[in-house]
Amino acid sequence: DCIIVDADKFKFVVDPYEEAQGTEMLTPVFVTREILERFRDTFTALWVGHLGNKHLPSQAEWEQLLGSCGGFFFYGMESFLSHILVERLAAMNLQECQMMVLLDLTRSYESMRRQAERSENKSVAQLCLEDPIETAVLLSLAGVRSILANQWPTLLRDNALRASVLWETGPLRALSHSPSDESAWTSRDKPPYLWPQLGDSAWLPVTLNSVLYGLPHLAVG
């Protein structure tokens, strides 16, 4: 049996410092705005969150979003845990959060500078928790049922493609596609600037970077 995650209870934080640099159409804010508009009639109409740097969420606002959601979507620069206080997150009860989608680990000059400044005051143990596997373990212990997350640094274009595929096909269904099955990744429904010009061997970093931790039998509905 499949557990349905209520699409109306999704919360999100997208590039809260707007640190992405490069082609505007590939930035997290632009891509997410397109997703919110494209799927408004099906499942994004009631999504609540922070898009860009018009209002930088405080630690309390992060906790309010995470503690009141059925699903959570983070799409931004550096690691997810570089944006919040890990010790506060570890003390939270996130059992209401069925699914967390983390499209992170992209970098820019601005994001690397922020990361370097914040890392100065963190211990080695705290920095280790920002690694993908440790982050998934921490979120699982806090109660999140499924975590879909990148495993290594990635490009803006690749994350933009992942975002498009994930919400077009469903976060978990997208992972069921074989890396050699390019149909989900080259659909003509996606804008041309997201069509990767890659050989077969180059597809692997794009398609295999995102890994699912936790329960596989969830669906957004």
Structure report:
InterPro entries: CFAP46 (IPR039586). This is Cilia and flagella associated protein 46. One of its GO terms (biological process) is cilium movement involved in cell motility. With 221 residues, the chain is an alpha/beta fold. It has one domain (3-220): Rossmann fold. The chain has helices at residues 28-38, 40-44, 59-67, 86-90, 109-119, 124-128, 132-142, 156-169, 171-175, 203-208, and strands spanning 3-5, 10-14, 48-51, 71-77, 99-106, 146-150, 210-214, 218-220. The strands form two sheets. The chain has a six-stranded mixed sheet with strand order 3-2-4-5-6-7, sandwiched between helices. It has a two-stranded parallel ribbon with strand order 1-8. Helix 4 (86-90) links the parallel strand 4 (71-77) and strand 5. Helix 1 packs parallel to helix 8 (156-169). The radius of gyration is 16 Å and the shape is globular.
